């Protein structure tokens, strides 16, 4: 950025000099314009190609929360808090279909499912952590397309942004997984388009070189079927498995049974209707193949509208039920809550073993400013 700033300043100095020369009659306006164009062409030729493709993206969210983290009779568990989330990152398209990206975000570096920062701390400095750092490759070099082979490696974008079709209730939208992914899409069989997805993720490491990383392996097959000009159906069937009991309800999340293994089977189904007010009806069923009881989860909902531009709105109502061992509790959406026993005490927080209804509305005041209200019951 420093180099670009200096070059832009130099371009500004050239413009001022040429203007003075025109005013004194040393050169004509046409000659000044030609010299400026020549200077800009030389500047662009000196820059690497990836610089012109570098894009930056950031967002700031301000939030007020009223929560009741306890039994209904426990009045002291009610809490009001103001929070913010700030994220800033960028990505550059390189030659031969390669792309690299990065992002920084607020929040606790040890918390995978949230980048919120609570106001407080007597005006002390807040944390700003590396949230993404990844490389990706696209076979056809067209990043607007979902067809062909795509690979990611590093600390990657959330599952929802790399090709998976998985409910956000199962994997919080703030998770940025670490490992590698392979996606192959655009396989047409009649009126159905299939996609194939796989990922291997490193979860826990050990300083002792004789010990290995704990890993999570995930796979999914997706399909999209165009039922009519206005109606489409999306289907995803997948599962993930965690290879270490160190990750199975051992103390950081809430809800899981200690020493329980996790290999959840996930089925996601959605119908999208395109109209003046778009409608999407969706549902997810999950079943932990390693559990004998309390292994199921259900998510179903309907969304109206799409808040993307000024004046747009959207609204949804969603029902969520996650039995205690349906999924690994530390990956679940942090907007839910559950009672569980961690390594030291009984606690309430992000996890499984809960049931609730979500009502949410969003409205775009401007293209880049959105308001939202969410209620959990």
Can you walk through the features of this model?
Helices cover 12% and strands 47% of the residues. It is mainly β and 377 residues long. The longest helix is centred in the N-terminal third of the chain and has 22 residues, at 2-23. The chain starts with a helix and ends with a strand. Mean pLDDT is 85; it is low at 1-12.
Give the topology string: H per helix, E per strand.
HHHEEEEEEEEEEEEEEEEEE
The largest sheet is: 16 strands, antiparallel
The span between the termini is 47 Å
Tell me the number of helical segments per DSSP (H or I, 4 or more residues long): 3
Unreliable residue stretches? 1-12
Helix percentage: 10-25%
**How much is the average pLDDT?**
85
Structural class: mainly beta
Q: What gross morphology would you assign?
A: globular
Number of strands: 18
The portion of residues forming beta strands comes to over 45%
Backbone CA Rg: 25 Å
Give the structure's gist in a few sentences.
This protein is mostly beta strands and 377 residues long.
What is the secondary structure topology, with strand pairs?
Layout: H1 2-23, H2 29-46, H3 49-53, E1 55-68, E2 78-93, E3 98-106, E4 117-118, E5 128-138, E6 148-155, E7 178-189, E8 192-204, E9 214-226, E10 231-242, E11 264-273, E12 279-288, E13 296-305, E14 313-322, E15 338-341, E16 346-349, E17 354-366, E18 369-376
Antiparallel strand pairs: 1-2, 2-3, 2-4, 3-5, 5-6, 6-7, 7-8, 8-9, 9-10, 10-11, 11-12, 12-13, 13-14, 14-17, 15-16, 17-18
List keywords for this structure.
disordered N terminus; 377 residues; mainly beta; 16-stranded antiparallel beta sheet
């Amino acid at each position: 950025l420093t180099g670009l700033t200096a070059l832009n300043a130099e371009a500004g100095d050239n413009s001022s000099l040429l203007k003075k020369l025109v005013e004194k009659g040393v050169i004509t306006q046409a000659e000044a314009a030609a010299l400026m164009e020549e200077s800009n062409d030389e500047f662009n030729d000196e820059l690497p190609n990836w610089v012109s493709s570098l894009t930056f993206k950031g967002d700031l969210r301000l939030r007020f929360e009223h929560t009741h983290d306890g039994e209904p009779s426990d009045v002291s568990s009610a809490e009001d808090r103001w929070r913010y989330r700030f994220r800033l990152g960028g990505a550059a398209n390189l030659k031969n279909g390669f792309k690299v990206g990065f992002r920084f975000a607020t929040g606790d570096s040890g918390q995978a499912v949230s980048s919120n920062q609570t106001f407080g701390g007597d005006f002390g400095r807040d944390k700003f952590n590396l949230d993404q750092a990844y490389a990706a490759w696209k076979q056809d070099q067209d990043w607007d397309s979902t067809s062909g082979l795509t690979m990611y490696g590093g600390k990657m974008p959330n599952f929802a942004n790399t090709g998976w079709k998985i409910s956000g209730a199962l994997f919080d939208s703030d998770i940025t997984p670490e490992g590698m992914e392979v996606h192959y899409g655009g396989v047409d069989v009649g009126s159905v388009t299939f996609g194939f997805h796989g990922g291997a993720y490193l979860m826990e490491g050990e300083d002792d070189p004789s010990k290995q990383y704990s890993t999570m392996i995930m796979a999914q097959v997706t399909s999209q079927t165009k039922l009519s000009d206005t109606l489409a159906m999306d289907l995803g069937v997948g599962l993930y498995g965690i290879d270490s009991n160190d990750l199975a309800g051992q103390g950081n999340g809430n809800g899981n049974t200690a020493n329980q293994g996790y290999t959840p089977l996930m089925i996601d189904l959605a119908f999208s209707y395109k109209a003046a007010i778009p409608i999407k009806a969706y549902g997810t069923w999950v079943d932990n193949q390693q559990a004998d009881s309390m292994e199921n989860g259900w998510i179903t909902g309907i969304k109206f509208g799409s808040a993307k531009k000024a004046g747009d709105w959207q609204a949804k109502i969603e029902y969520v039920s996650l039995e205690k061992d349906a999924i690994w509790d530390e990956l679940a959406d942090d907007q839910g809550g559950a009672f569980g026993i961690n390594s030291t005490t009984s606690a309430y927080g992000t996890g499984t073993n809960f049931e609730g209804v979500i009502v949410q509305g969003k409205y775009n005041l401007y293209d880049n400013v959105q308001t939202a209200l969410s209620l959990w019951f």
